[in-house]
Design brief:
- This protein has 14 helices and 17 strands.
- The protein has helices at residues 20-38, 43-46, 93-100, 103-109, 116-129, 195-200, 217-229, 251-254, 259-267, 270-280, 290-306, 360-364, 404-407, 417-431, and strands at 10-16, 51-55, 134-136, 138-145, 151-157, 160-171, 175-177, 189-191, 209-213, 234-238, 311-314, 317-324, 329-335, 340-346, 348-351, 355-357, 396-399.
- The strands form four sheets. Strands 1, 2, 3, 4, 5, 6 and 17 form a seven-stranded mixed sheet that branches.
- Helix 1 (20-38) crosses helix 14 and helix 7 crosses helix 11.
- Bound molecules: dihydroflavine-adenine dinucleotide.
- Dihydroflavine-adenine dinucleotide (FDA) binds next to helix 1, strand 2 and strand 4.
């Protein structure tokens, strides 16, 4: 693939990915600049931090394949892109509601958990204000050190490669979907990340049976949505647990998502880190909002009363094998207590088998040689989210996400986004001769 000549301008910050994490970073950088302006800084100090973001999607989108009608946020609306860092920001969820003329209506609604569709609209509204800083339809494929101060960022746009220069790179590429070993996505085998995209391709679809594998939030949402949307379809939920387990979002448990908890987690020895992680697992992993569990149970029970069950919960069960054939998929399911095996013929199999962190080393390319890794092969990440490097390197690579091992369970969630971006901006400012930290 031809590589275009290096763009001569050296950006202070290149953001890889423009999801909520780097969108929040764009806001934090802009607000830092405004604050310096208000303080009347002149000359070098008043110079704008020059930031550009590369996003591989053609336009802004936050998990569009799971923007299920009616699905709600799992986080308080004040944990938006900015409020915990700067409650006076004009990019808060409240400012968005005000701009849309819905602030009073939202207050009357008495909810702390808006729908994901509304939150998506908030994110799009914010992203639109930063459109001049984002290059959509561009994928970063590698980083290379140019010298001790500058990195080359290799970007694929259409069929061309371009190289841009940066003093700092902030990786905010999100999580990657996981399918069980040996399973490949195909015509009838999907991961939940593509659920609505796949369904949109099928106008007037009337499936006989859909199998959903998994027992977490996405699995329960997929079961609920498919059952509601296709009234003639049997929906089989297959999972190893006895039942869906509720997410612990009680007040004390929620403190694991506080900024202070990141300090505690970061400072803790490895065995305490593991302990904290295990204690907090049921705030986020393989758990479901209690309201949704109640709704699914209500439906299953109502069908039992009516004597016509099409919401089938196959608990304590495991999928042994899936074959995607011309006429449909055949799913072989074992009931674990007895070992009994049954075949289910399905029009689609939806894997709600979660996500994992993307390995930053996959993106780092030649720059990886200057980055420190721990014994587990993961990058050593400093408290300010910068990957530790050989001391001679003045350039910085920061991580938003992929820091569960160092910074704790909030790493991939929205709870810490506002505060984390403030910390990254402060760190970049501290390390740069040109910028005075004020965030
Ligand atoms: P995110 O994945 O959102 O964005 C990363 C972006 O980087 C994407 O736009 C991608 O296209 C782009 N990208 C990737 N590689 C690239 C490359 N090489 N070059 C250029 N661009 C690249 N959390 C929470 O706290 N509360 C909630 O309610 C929810 N709800 C929720 C629902 C669903 C269905 C999912 C799947 C996840 C959640 N989450 C969540 C967790 C989720 O991780 C979080 O909400 C944010 O999406 C994290 O934002 P990021 O920007 O870090 O990643």
């Amino acid at each position: 693939m031809p590589e275009e000549r290096i763009q001569p301008r050296v950006h202070d910050v290149v953001g890889i990915g423009f999801g909520p994490s780097n969108l929040a970073l764009a806001v934090a950088l802009a607000e830092e600049r405004e604050e310096r302006g208000e303080r009347g800084e002149r000359g070098e100090n008043a110079a704008a931090v020059d930031a550009v973001f590369f996003e591989k999607q053609p336009e802004f989108g936050w998990h569009r394949g799971m923007l299920i009608d009616g699905a709600t946020m799992q986080v308080h609306f004040l944990k938006d892109l900015v409020s915990l860092r700067n409650p006076a920001s004009r990019y808060s969820f409240l400012a968005y509601l005000h701009d849309r003329g819905r602030l009073v209506d939202f207050v009357n609604h008495k909810t702390m958990f808006p729908t994901r569709a509304e939150f998506h609209d908030y994110l799009e509204w914010t992203a639109a204000a930063f459109a001049d800083r984002v290059r959509y339809g561009t994928e970063v494929v590698a980083l290379r050190p140019r010298d001790d101060e500058t990195l080359e960022v290799v970007v694929r746009r259409d069929d061309r490669l371009e190289t841009h220069l940066a003093r700092n790179v902030v990786i905010g590429v999100g999580l990657e979907p996981v399918l069980p070993e040996g399973v490949r996505a195909g015509e009838r085998i999907w991961h939940t990340e593509d659920l609505l995209t796949r369904l949109d391709e099928r106008a007037d679809w009337a499936p006989n049976r859909i199998v959903v594998v998994g027992a977490g939030q996405s699995a329960a949402e997929a079961v609920e949505y498919l059952h509601r949307t296709y009234p003639g379809t049997e929906v089989c939920a297959v999972f190893a647990r006895y039942g869906y387990s509720p997410a612990d979002d009680s007040a004390f448990a929620n403190r694991i998502f506080d900024p202070e908890a990141v300090d505690h987690y970061y400072a803790a020895p490895d065995d305490v880190k593991r302990m904290l992680f295990e204690y907090s697992r049921n705030t986020n992993y393989s758990v479901v909002d209690l309201d949704l569990i109640d709704e699914l149970y209500r439906r299953a029970y109502a069908e039992k009363v009516a004597g016509a069950q099409r919401l089938r919960i196959l608990n304590v069960s495991r999928v042994l094998d899936v074959r995607d054939g011309a006429g449909g998929a055949r799913v072989r399911v074992a009931f674990l207590p007895t070992g009994e095996v049954a075949d289910l013929d399905a029009d689609a199999v939806v894997y709600a088998t979660g996500y994992r962190e993307r390995d930053p080393f996959d993106l780092l390319g030649e720059a990886a040689g200057d980055c420190l890794a721990g014994p587990d092969g993961r990058p050593v990440v400093e408290r300010d989210y910068r990957i530790a490097t050989d001391p001679g390197r003045a350039w910085g690579v920061y991580l938003q996400g992929a820091t569960e091992h160092s910074h704790g369970i909030a790493s991939s969630l929205l709870s810490m986004t506002a505060v984390r971006t403030g910390e990254i901006v402060r760190s970049i400012a501290r390390r740069s001769a040109r910028v005075t930290p004020v965030v």
